[in-house]
Amino acid sequence: MTELAYSLGDFFQSTFGILIALGNIPNYLFIILGFVGLFYWLNLQKKYSREDKEAGRLI
């Protein structure tokens, strides 16, 4: 059981080493992905609100 825990720990440490080498690039990618998701969601909401308004279901 401890071998599994240590091997997982070694894997995560190597993964974090890659993140350190990348610098701020992952942060920028997450920010861009968040904004893309936000604008996608807002466009869907706009479409659904327009459909409900035309159908008379808007509260």
Overall pLDDT, averaged?
92
Strand content: under 5%
Rough outline: elongated
In sequence order, what are the helices and strands, one letter per element?
HH
Main beta sheet: none
Quickly give the structural class.
Answer: mainly alpha
Helix tally equals 2
- The tally of strands reads 0
Output the radius of gyration: 22 Å
Terminal CA distance: 57 Å
The unreliable regions are none
Q: What portion of residues is helical?
A: over 70%
Description:
The chain is an all-alpha fold and 59 residues long. The protein has a domain at 23-59. It has helices spanning 2-22, 25-55. The chain is elongated, with a radius of gyration of 22 Å.
Keywords:
59 residues; mainly alpha; 2 helices; elongated
List the helices and strands and how they pair.
Blueprint: H1 2-22, H2 25-55
Put the structure in a nutshell:
With 59 residues, the protein is an all-alpha fold.
